[in-house]
Amino acid sequence: MNGKLKRSQDPAAYAVKLLSVLCPLVYFASYLTRKDYSIVMQAIIENEGLLKAQAGQVESLAVISYGVGQIVSGILGDRFKPQRLILFGLSVTTVCNVLLPFTPADLRVIVWFINGFAQSMLWPPLVRIMAAVMNEKDYNTTAANTNVAGLSGTIFIYLTSSLLWLKLDGRFTWQLTFFTSAALTAVILLLWVFGFRKLKDVEALRFRRTEKQTAEKDKAGKLSVKLLMGSGFVLIAVAIIAQGALRDGITDWVPTFISETFSQSSDKAILKSVILPVIGVISMKIVGIASNKWVRNEVSGAAFTFLGSTALCAALFGFYAHNEYVTLGVSALIVGTMHAINFFLICVVPARFEKYGVVSTMSGIINSLTYVGASAGVYFFGKVADSEKLGWSAVLVSWIAIAAAGALACFAAAKPWNRFKRKDAE
């Protein structure tokens, strides 16, 4: 059969194979149309004379919209066909990216706020689809690859936006970044529609509780606030917020940090900052393999990763002004650790609730916590950096404190989470 798998041969395997391509494509599009603003933010600041806090507000409010929308999306994803929510999200975000370059500076916050909500319609439904159709090994592999695809979208934006700037050297070059993102997302939207038409008759692709879950309905009824409290979820939530603040806060502000610290033009700082998502891709591939082979408790894995990031943040504070390449490299490693923690806490943790029929809801709640931290981080770091008395040194100190808080929260949550996993397996 030339190695090709057909629906008639093994419908379940065919569904897994096709979704292992479609899900990463959706997340690639998501990052294209969500991260493009933050990547060209320094160029917008320079061209339009905006304060960092003013430009950051557009991103910050979009992150709030994204975070709140995660909860809505999560609940809807457990009650309606998740593929339709994804279709809606991709369609609206494409339109928002087309509109933003034509929008006056004072009104961009509205367009990007809507974009944030549209983006929230993507991840929880994707998690539900993957958890419903795939076994644990396939889920971990596809979830890791999906996150790698998202980071690849970030890399694409870094490269295309900086190269467009260098080549065209014009005032309106940053607008082309949004048009490029919208065009590619429109193509992926069509692939998603056509791909799901192939799956509509596949018996394995049923987004409701399986027979096994139905047989365990008594166990499903035990999902409660008490159970979540006993699992250590409150502590995990603290760590998720810390991870979001560092992952997105550092990623969004490193181009500006490098530009101001080493007197670099924004285009060069953006091009050099591509190292951040590159390290993120490597980190996600490593953690995806490790999760299947060695890591038995994802919260413990996140705890030790946070501990390493705390040491990296302290090292960065000690010598950040001496060499821009070392500074970039260490910043990239910190972001890489945050992507590893993201996999443990945002990808694996919600999948543990699949048998309770609330995987999409839990994914939405967990991911919304990420963007509570991200929104606070993006705004707070910009506000501190703007201060003449504080500046970037104070920002770096805050990174150390946030990473340490995340480590402490995960270490405290590791034992109760392990008990929750054992109880869940009974």
The counted number of beta strands is: 0
Average per-residue pLDDT, rounded, comes to: 79
String of helices and strands = HHHHHHHHHHHHHHHHHH
What general outline do the C-alpha atoms trace?
A: globular
> Could you please say which CATH topology applies here?
Growth Hormone, Chain: A
Strand content: under 5%
The name of the CATH architecture is Up-down Bundle
Distance between the termini: 41 Å
Q: Give the number of helices.
A: 18
Indicate the structural class: mainly alpha
What would CATH call the class? Mainly Alpha
Characterize the structure shown.
With 426 residues, the protein is mainly α. It has a single domain, classed as Growth Hormone, Chain: A. It contains 18 helices and no strands. The protein has helices at 11-39, 41-48, 52-77, 82-99, 108-119, 123-133, 136-168, 173-199, 211-215, 217-220, 225-230, 233-261, 266-272, 275-293, 298-319, 324-351, 359-386, 391-425. Helix 15 packs antiparallel against helix 18. The longest helix has 35 residues, at 391-425. The model is unreliable at 208-222 (pLDDT under 50).
